Structures are given as structure tokens and as C-alpha cells.
Amino acid sequence: MNLRQLRYFVSVLDAENITRAAEQLHVAQTALGMQIRQIEEDLGIALLVRHSRGVSPTKAGKLLYTRAVEILKLVEETRKEVSAAEREDSEAIRFGITPALMLIAGTELALTVRQNHPQLLLSMVEAMSHVLIESLARGEVDFILCYDVPDLPQLSRTALLQDDLVLVTPPGPHKGKPIAFVDALDESLAMPEVGDSIRAVATRTARDLGLELSVAYEVRSVSAMKSLVARGAATSILPYFSVIDEVKAGVLDVRPIVTPALRRTLFLASSKQRGPFRNEAALSGAVRLSLQRLLDELGPLAEPLWVRTG
Hints:
With 310 residues, the protein is an alpha/beta fold.
């Protein structure tokens, strides 16, 4: 057995399904199944019961799962301790953030951490929400700040705020005027790729209404979507904070989407398969501080979830 095989085995049992685990790990299902069978052959005992709904552990499989989780945590703790051996008080954290959030909160987060928590060495990675979730599952990042993180047994997540998406249009007479979601669907839309949280919430809402989301331009880049809208080729459904500068400059307009509103939840998430970080509380506090500008810009389009009432 090796560490990769142990990670694969833990992921399969967390997902309770080899196909689902393969998707989360970004490996071929046949390759994942082969690694699991190799562990069983090495140990000379069945570890999984395979059935129509997925897989479940045998008695030996439960024992190996428990030990594997302990081993992986110990390896991660050892990695962090060795990395920090020459700088005992410092701690490196790999932090994933979406491109739109990077523009409005990323710089503020980096400055807050540097000023208030110099012992925290923050390495920031930028990617779309669904890519960050997959990276977290593979252990490529330690924390992620992104939208609509699924409730998975191997992930720890904290909801920070909710915000409403808007229809982004070229400048025109309807600036700021609310638009019903069903009317927004009639627009020629430039949207992110399948899997992105914006695309997912729009598709899900349309399906709930018995409608279909029709996409004229599928674009992975927020900048490219904004360019298409500015040229009058399309409109787009995006978070307001991703177009604030263009709206202020008069290059783009936005219209609130209503009946129903398209609401997403922003999460700070980490993996339960990793050991605890000494500066986790400091990072969480810095993230909340960095989001204050975002909340100020969004106004009634957003609601913080960490503020106490009364």
C-alpha cells in the first residue's frame, strides 16, 4: 500500500460510490477500481461490498478506513511540521479563491494577513468555484473561499454570506430596473461553463420553473463575458461585484433579477482529512474582514451570515 492508494480508498468510502469518487478525484473509474483491488490483493481480504447503490465497507474495510484517516492526518501534520522546522512560528496555507472574489477581496485579504498575522504564509490560488472544490478534495489547496460548496462528509464548511446575481447588460434605458427571471431567460446569454456555481443556480432555478436555460455563448472567462456584453452581443448573469468597476465607468449596466432571485451562498471550506492548522481562526477572521468591502458594495444584494442579532 502507498499513500495515494490510502487517499483513494478513503475517498471511495466517503463518496460511497466508486464512480462519484473518481469524478471528485479526477481519475478514471477503471484506474481507481484497479487501485482498490490492488490493496485487497496485497492484504488478501475483501475491503468493499459492491452493490447496485455503490459500495460499503466490510469489517476489515472499516478498520482500514479508520487507520487510513489517521495515517493521512499524521502525514499531513508531519509535512507541515517539517516545512515549518526552520521557521517554528510560521505556517503556510494554500488558499483558493474565485477570480471575481480575488478582484474585490483578494488584495484586502493578503494585506490583512500580512499586517495582522505575519506568521501566516498565505499562498493564493485563483480558479472557478467548481475547480476549487475539486482541488480541495484532491488536497491541492488547504482552504477555499467559493460558492455553493456541497455538503460532503470529507469537507468542513462555514457559510459566510449570501448574495443575489444580476443581469448584466449594455448601457440602456432599463438600468437598475428589476427583471423577472423568466424574462432574463429570453435574453441572448453569455454564461460560464457547466459545473460553475452561477450556471448551476440559473439552470436549477429554470428547471424548477419547468423552463430551460439557453446559452448563446459558453465562456470560462469573466472578462470575456463582460466584453461580449459591452459589445452588445449578449447579456450575462453574474455577481454584481464582478462588474462594479464597469458599471461605475458607464460601460455596463445591471438589473436585479427577481421572482425568483438567484441567490448563492459563499463558504469558507477545508478538508476534514487534514490535520488542524494553528492559524485557522486567524485566517477565518481575516477572511471576514476582507469581505466587508464586498458587503458594502453589494448593499441590499447581500446578507452576511456571521452577524449576530439582538
